[in-house]
Amino acid sequence: MLLLSTPVISAVLSTPANASGQNGHRIVREIASKHITDTTKLALVPLLDGDSLPQVATWADEMRSAPENFWQKKSSRWHYINFKEGDAKPHYDSDAHHNKETVSDILEGMEYSISVLQNQKASLAEKQFALRFLVHLVG
After folding, report:
1. By three-state DSSP, how is residue 16 classified?
2. Tens digit of pLDDT per residue, the chain (139 long)?
C-alpha cells in the first residue's frame, strides 16, 4: 500500500516546473524588466501603450480567440519549430521575416519581430505587434 500511495501523493502534490501559462510568462518578463536600461524603457513606452512587459507577456495567448484568420490559422506556428527526420538543424527561410503571414516557426517569428522593430518605416501598430509577440516568445 505504501508503494502505491507514494506515487499517487507525489503526482497530486507536484506542480509543473515550466514557464508556460500566464504566471510563468509574467514572472519571466518581470525578471527581465528589472534588467532593462532606462533608455530602453523610454523607447518601449509608446510600444507598450500603457502596459508593462509582464502585462504584454500573455497577449499572444489571449489573442488566440480572436476571429481573424491570422489568430485562428497561423499564429500557432510562431510557437514551435519542426525538424525533418535526419536533419541536424531546422530549415530556415530568411525571406519569411518580411511578412507575418508567412512565418512558419518560432525562429522566423522572432526574426520577423526584430526586423519590424528595427524598421524605421514600420507603423506603430506593426511595432506594437512585433514587440508583444517577441516578448511572448522569448519568455
Report:
1. coil
2. 444 444 443 343 434 444 456 677 667 767 777 888 889 889 889 999 998 877 887 788 887 777 787 777 777 877 788 777 777 777 666 665 567 878 888 888 888 999 999 999 999 999 998 998 888 888 7
Distance CA 108, CA 97 (A): 6
Residue 10 CB-half CA count within 13 A: 6
Q: How far apart are CA 123 and CA 8, in angstroms?
A: 54
How far are the Cα atoms of 1, 17, 33, 71, 99 from residue 8, in angstroms, in the given order? 11, 18, 39, 39, 49
In the chain, the domains with their CATH numbers are 18-138 (1.10.575.10)
- Among candidates 82, 122, 128, which has minimal Cα distance to 105? 82
Residues in the chain: 139
Distance CA 112, CA 40 (A): 20
